[in-house]
Amino acid sequence: MVYLAIAPMAIGFLTWGYALARTTAGRMGSITYLVPPIAILLGWLLLGETPPGLAIVGGAICLVGVVVARRRPASAASDRPAD
Question: Are 19 and 28 in contact (CB under 8 A)?
């Protein structure tokens, strides 16, 4: 039981720290939204679980959220009309 409590936690923190050292916290936070769709996909492919419709909708919302969060804002200069 100690192994089950420590090993997954250690792997999670080590991989999070490794990734965080190579990118920003904001980017890592937005990429975290990819966990539910990946978990649904892996459950479907590896375990043969059929995802319910609501899970597919939720995964799509997560993916859209990642796209919106990672999108670069338009520069203020491009918003000004030409003289």
Answer: yes
